[in-house]
Amino acid sequence: MVEDEADLRDDLVEYLDRCGFEVRGASRGAELDRLLESGPADVIVLDVNLPDEDGFSVARRIRTSSHAAIIMLTARSSLIDRVIGLELGADVYLVKPVDFREVEAQVKALMRRMQKGAAPLPAPEPPSAAPAAAADARRAWVFDDIEWRIQPPTGAAVPLTATEYKFLSLLVTAPGEPVTRQDISVALTGRDWDPYSRSIDSLVRRLRIKVEERSGCALPVQAVHGVGYAFVGPVVSSVVEDSTP
């Protein structure tokens, strides 16, 4: 919990501790760095207005060295601040004043998402199935969750923005299973889905165009009527090989 206002920081640390989390508090970016050196964090609740370094800069640094989820908790409520925070790597953007129960709910949601993404890999196939498995892998899309790229079975890898990466990471966790617009909206904006908003559809349309233009392959993301979107092609998560000669 990174917050320079001592009373708020202490109250939130105490509240989340009572909720069953192991919580450490920091008042500035440099103190957070020292805490992370002593042990990793699963979720970082981060204020934007900090005395030594603003939270946007801290979030950018965290994203280069940590897989921790980031909840930005700030009084800066403008749309541009929200967009900047999410683009720099925040998973959730909450505006003060905020009910502590909402912070708790967001932390639990992020923990569930990370635990789902960290599900154990299936047992290796017996040797007789190895050629078939290798052939399947060659036909699969590769989602690179380190370099933030998506690569088709044939064609060049396509770099992803933070928003595109978060969107695809939801879908490739369970290929073929639809992810609801509500879950997508909460993951991308921290807000409930607005049925009148076309922002998710616009994101998908731009991403399809981008992937096809850069790789020559159609992105297998399919709309599921009345639900949301699904990744309908074979996909594996891995580090994408650099295709540059």
Structure, explained:
With 245 residues, the chain is an alpha/beta fold. It has 2 domains: 6-117, Response regulator (Rossmann fold, 3-Layer(aba) Sandwich); 127-237, Arc Repressor Mutant, subunit A. The protein contains 9 helices and 10 strands. The chain has helices at 6-18, 29-38, 55-65, 79-87, 100-117, 130-138, 162-172, 181-189, 199-215, and strands spanning 43-46, 69-74, 92-95, 141-144, 149-151, 158-159, 179-180, 221-224, 228-231, 235-237. A hairpin with a 3-residue loop joins strand 8 (221-224) and strand 9. The termini are far apart. Residues 118-125, 127-137 and 239-245 have low confidence and may be disordered.
Secondary-structure blueprint of this entry?
Elements (H helix, E strand, L loop, with lengths): L5 H13 L10 H10 L4 E4 L8 H11 L3 E6 L4 H9 L4 E4 L4 H18 L12 H9 L2 E4 L4 E3 L6 E2 L2 H11 L6 E2 H9 L9 H17 L5 E4 L3 E4 L3 E3 L8
Parallel strand pairs: 1-2, 2-3, 4-10
Antiparallel strand pairs: 4-5, 5-6, 7-9, 8-9
List descriptors.
single chain; 245 residues; alpha/beta; Rossmann fold; Arc Repressor Mutant, subunit A; 2 domains; 4-stranded mixed sheet; 3-stranded parallel sheet; 9 helices; globular; disordered C terminus
